[in-house]
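Q: For a teaching session next week I want to show students how multiple molecules come together into a single three-dimensional assembly. I've collected the sequence lines for a complex. Could you give me the predicted structure tokens for the whole thing so I can convert them for display?
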Amino acid sequence: MKDIVEGTAWVFGDSVDTDSMYPGYAMKLPIEDAAKHVFYDLRPDWVDRVREGDVLIAGRNFGIGSSRPVAQLLLHIGIRVLVAEEFNSLFLRNAINFGLPALTIPGIAELVSDGDAVRVDVRAAAVEVTGSGRLASGSPLPAFVLDIVEQGGLFNKLVAEGYIDS
Amino acid sequence: MIEKILARASGREAVAVGEVVVCEVDMTVLIDLQFATMWREPNRIADPDRLAVVMDHAVPAPSINNAQGGVAARAFAKGFGIERFFDVGQHGICHQVIAEQGLARPGEVLTCTDSHTCAAGAYNNAARGLGPVEVYSIMCTGRTWFQVAPTIRYELVGAKPEVVSGKDIFLHIAGRYGDATNHNLEFAGAGLTSVPMNDRRTIATQGAEVSADFTTFPVDELCRDFLAQHSDAPYEAADPDADATYAAVRRVELAGLEPYVARPGKVADNAEPVSALVGVAVDQCFIGSCANGQIEDLRIAAETLDGRRVAEGVRLLVTPASQAVYLEAVRAGYVERLAAAGAVITNSTCGACFGYHMGLLGAGEVCLTASTRNFRGRMGSPEASIYMASPATVAASAVTGRITDPRELVA
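A: Of course. Below is the structure for the complete assembly, covering every listed component.
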């Protein structure tokens, strides 16, 4: 986990569902191929435009739907932190457990415009639109959740505890 | 109700909204996809008796990758002595198998990778879907954490009309009140006596569709009878305190409800009485999934189709929720009646519901489904439109080729 993430903000709306991020047909593909299909219909050119260290910003109820591991795809294409007005709880836990921090920050969808350069302080749960002075923050993730993210997800934690081999 | 269960599972007297609690998980269910995608053989697991393995999402294997998942699942079940292993032939959609096998007990906690695990809330169980890595972790450690969310209580009053099902009750609620993100749902009230267990499970299953955490029902006579038919293990029901606090309490007058239909895309703020959508032409009708592949759903479909034909140019797919439901439907004559009417009865699997295998939709096609989700692209092309309704409405619409009020067909 990077404490500070600086990149381009990609802004999505309310109630974006998991099938739009990880469609059923892509579940048959290896992760690196499946990752080419994130938002295949909602924003077809998106995956090619994302760069390492970019930030995904969303509105309310982000990630409603299934437990398919969207976070793996987002990490693969370079997204390093998710920020939303509100997450579906299954989606949020799923992201954390794959080592992708997910910050709930009320007002974020109003603050940030698509394409803005942003600076995210992951520990403080704070976002700044670079150079504009515009800031928003939420409640920081609890220490035990940050611990899971810092270890790179639950699999790594289970390796460290001897449940699985590395 | 849910706070009582989480308190017991975390060894506390009580829990409060906002608290994070670490809970012992009473039953964890692994599904076939988990073995096909990111399986790693563990060195040790918490307890083989608190684990079940169910083959459901992609069976019989439609790809070599899924077949390899089956190989891994069988080796794991054998190696770790998992007695509750439901392989192809004893399989079913995991939430149906959980019900049939009595794996979800009142007052207990159940977790599984599938997002519709909230289905077991029909049995007064704190059940929810979690990501594949978290479920794997629970398999290893036997526990996980929950943050206690506020609860919305639905008070059901009166008696539902015969034609109105759990699906209609749910779609009414979703259409009127919208999503319940980061909230629990609790159902109660004297009206529950008119809502049978299959309808309660449809409602609990669909809690995920309004983004709720847990959805729970109380234990009453209907629930006790159901549980007694499936397991003799003792349980302790979790009843809400009389002075429990809720984020909202909402009354639902069952007697006034009618069949509902959700428009394509989502159910929250997007469902209406069937009269608003009557006449929309359909290409495919589907009755199945964990929500609506129960024996009662197949009975309704068979009775509606009895002596009738599926309309020309329309496909009707029916997926029993388990091998046991399939067998019961054969014995009851439902399969014969459905097939005679031109319906396709499939193997029990999640296949068509999540657009993975079987029954996919092409661009421009319209589907009316009694399953779990109507997200864009869910069942095939993103250019297809998926409406959602009850098995009665779907079956009636399959006969006419247009969205139809099931009361009109009966008349």
